[in-house]
Structure formats: C-alpha cells, structure tokens
Amino acid sequence: MSWETTVSTGNAQHDQMMIDAYRQQARASGMDLQVQPMPSGGYHVRAVPMQQAQHAGWQQQPAYAAAGAASVSSPTAAAEIEAAKPLSTERLAYLRKVYGLLSIAAFLAIGSGYALLELSPTAKFLYQGKKVTAPIVVVEMWNNPVLMYAAFGALVATSFVASWLSKVKVINVIMLMLVAVLMGVELAPMAMIAQLQAGMGKTLSAAPVRDAFMMVGAIFAGVTAYVFISRKDFSWLGAIVSMGTLVVLVGCILTFVLDSEIFTLAVASVGALLAGLFLMWQTWWVLKGDMDDPIEDALVFLVQLRNLFMFLLRIFMSRD
C-alpha cells in the first residue's frame, strides 16, 4: 500500500538522513521512494509499488538531481541544494529588521563614545608621569576605577533588562538604544588610554583604536558572508560558545589577580576568538532560527561586536 509524508527539519543533513531511512523502509516492503522538493522548503516523499514507479511523473531523486548530484545520500549535494535555496520573503524581511536595528545601535554606540571623547569638557591629569588633557568623565573614571566598574555594571544590567523586555513593543527599541549609548560611554576610557599609550610609543599598534575597529568590521563582514553563502549548519557552535563564555569570564577575573601581560594577552586572544565564533553562531541563528525576536538578535550581535572590539583593542594595546 502506498504511503506519503513530508521531510522538513530545517537542516539539510537531517533531511537527508530521514529520506535515506524512508528509502530503506520502502525497499524493505518492495516499494520505491519518490522525492519532490517543496517550494517552502523540505521534501515531499511517497512510497509506491515498483510497477507504479516506472510510470510515475516523479523522479526518484529529483531534489538532488536538480543540483547535478548523483545520489540523494551525498552530503555535498545536500549542502549545495541548501545553499541554492532562495530565502523566503519573511526571512528576508526579518534579516533587514535585525541588521537595520543593529546598524542604528552600532551608530549610536560609536557616536556616544566619540561625543564623550571629543565634545565633552576636558581637564588635565597626570598619566605615567606626563600631563595630558582628556575629557573630565574619562579623567574621573581613570582616577576612580569604581566609576569604570560601575559603568560596566550598568551596561551589563541594562543588557539583561533589554533582553528581558525584548518583546515589549517600543520599550524594547528604547532599551536597545540605551544599551548602545552606555556601551559607547563604557568603552571610551579604554579607547582614550589606548591612544595615549600609542602616542608614547608603548603599544603594539601605532593606532590601536583604528586597527581594532577595522578588524572588527572585517571579521563581521567575513563571518556574515561565509554563513550566508555556505548555508552550513553551525548549531554545534552553541555548546562551544556557552562553555567558552564561562572560561573567558573566569580568565578575565584572574587577570586582576595575576599581573601578567602574557596571561592577559592569552585571555584577550581566546576572548576575541570566542566572540568571532559567537558572531558566526548568531548569524546562523538569524538565517535559520525562529523569526520572533529581532531586538534580541540585534542585541546579541551588538554585545559580541563590543566584546570583539574590546579584546582586539587590548591585544593592540599590548607592550612591545
């Protein structure tokens, strides 16, 4: 007796495995399995008696033959078909919303940091035996580390609140933009110190802020292009970035205890790598995951871009 079903797991390899299992089941019953791709994604499969298979309009392996593949069980062919699938209208609209929100938030973060460094009132202070001029807020935060930690704590707390309220209309957008502004303010002192050290010839890079900014842009563009073009399954990165975040957090705490430039650079290097992997996982998620929370997705991108910039800046600030 003929039977039919659909295969649509959202993962090309999983679809392939299910189709192979159905094919074995059909052959064990003396039947052929016919496979047709569906416009919305996935495949419609039908098991029919051998005699009917010779006269049916369906091909036995049309989904993979269309991509020029020889066999439905080829992982390479499955990946090629997945990459060739056009994105749905709903997915394209969701991507525009996520990256649009991210662009506005990133602009606010950069703008708030620039305004603090270039447009706010200045004061003189002693830095490594030299009198320098810097924004009053930066001077106060540098002279009183508690203020710097408070700024970081405010950023973390606001990020959690923004994530919690990510589905509350209007408020979610306001919270995302507030996180962006606080992020610029929190990073400004580090950027200022990086430039001061660079002016004294004490950094690895002559322009650490510029170089870190450019590298963040290059990494983000490269990761985005690779995930969008390859359409590979990066769900396995979820466990890695979760455990890696804990390891890097512990490492950051230990840098305050161990006064070691080598250890600090090691933590910064691992942190930069982790942030890059997190961006890759998040890009895969907005391409394949649920389309119900663009604010949360943009927030995750923003936080990881901040982390990547911070770790790269620390590397470029390292002593010769």
Topology:
Blueprint: E1 3-7, H1 12-28, E2 31-37, E3 43-49, H2 50-53, H3 62-65, H4 75-84, H5 89-118, E4 122-127, E5 130-135, H6 136-143, H7 145-164, H8 171-199, H9 208-230, H10 237-257, H11 261-288, H12 294-316
Antiparallel strand pairs: 1-3, 2-3, 4-5
Helix pairs in contact: 5-8, 5-12, 6-7, 7-8, 8-12, 9-11, 9-12, 10-11, 11-12
Descriptive account of the structure:
The termini are far apart. The longest helix is centred in the first third of the chain and has 30 residues, at 89-118. The protein is mostly helical. It has 2 domains: 3-84, no CATH class; 89-316, no CATH class. The strands form 2 sheets. It has a 3-stranded antiparallel sheet with strand order 1-3-2. A two-stranded antiparallel ribbon has the order 4-5. The chain has helices spanning 12-28, 50-53, 62-65, 75-84, 89-118, 136-143, 145-164, 171-199, 208-230, 237-257, 261-288, 294-316; strands at 3-7, 31-37, 43-49, 122-127, 130-135.
Considering the chains and any ligands shown, give keywords for the structure.
320 residues, mainly alpha, 2 domains, 3-stranded antiparallel beta sheet, 12 helices, 68% helix, elongated
